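Late entry, evening session. Most of the bench is empty. Finally got around to the prediction I had been postponing all week. Sequence below, unchanged from the version circulated by S.P.
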Amino acid sequence: MTNKVYKFGIVGAEMIAEFHAKAIAAITNAELVAVVALREEQALAFAQAHGCQAYTDLTPFLANDGLDVVTICSPSGAHLDPTIAAAEAGKHVICEKPLKVTTERVDRMINACDKAGVMLAGIFPRRFNEATKLFKNAVDNGRFGTIVFADAAIKWWRDQAYYDSGAWRGTWELDGGGALMNQSIHTIDLLLHLMGDVRHVRAQTRLAAHTGIEVEDVGVAMLEFENGAFGTIHGSTSCWSAEGHAAEIQICGSAGSMFMADDKFRTWEFKDERPEDQTILLDHGLNADVAGAGAADPKAIDFAWHQRNFEDALAGLDRGGPPLVDGKEGRRAIALIRAIYESAERGGERVYVA
């Protein structure tokens, strides 16, 4: 590990940029030096709140002295241009989910960063939690036997005011989709991280509980994984709850079952019991504390999740290797969600994931 302090700049001053700023402030070898936003008053307010320099133009922002890493917090459909500009300026890029709203544009981002010799990292913070690591180890060590089912359920709530708060929200062009692409993508990525790639999908989506948006607020998909297991995805922003329902992943096999709600295990049960199993349930079971996941309120997300994601990216830079979530990893969930949308458009026909 080096002693380098990485200087960060943030593109966009939307809500998610606050989590980026707080995460950067909490990292010992990181410093926020600049923000760029289209609206001057928004850029100035953000800069004043976080002690950095404000810009309204990307070119002078990227020329900021010593800038090392750019984080992209603009609307999902507006990630491509700043990523390519940052890469061409020699800056490393950490981009919010989804990297982009189509795989073709993600590939352009990956190619631009590869050509410039800079890092492209995605934001999937749930990969870095201890419960996820325990889950992944159990899968990799074969504790489930033959896995037969792997399911993800994201039954969240967003009120109408959420979609009305920005003209870009709920649009195909800038949001790239609805409950699946925007909210469920974190859990979908986690499902892929645990299970490997999906071969094909059948899906249906609809707009059920909101108005004035182009995209879905309910979606369901049936999956067949490359390893032969079946699975389902339920994603919604129409499931009201005062506290919010946990995003859940369930994996069941011939030798074990594990249900994880956010970062707590509801079920951790294996045919070959081990001494550490009871300790894991005590430390990571339903009574353990867990950071906010934003099930009912996007402002409830804990910035510590982003902090771990950023620290992994910086550790990659220090060692000269890729981050855990590089461009190719960030692409996987987008490819699956795009296949789900294609299947839904075709009335539930089977679509292969590319």
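Two things to note before I forget:
Residues 155 and 271 are 30 Å apart (CA to CA).
The mean pLDDT is 94.
Will write this up properly tomorrow.
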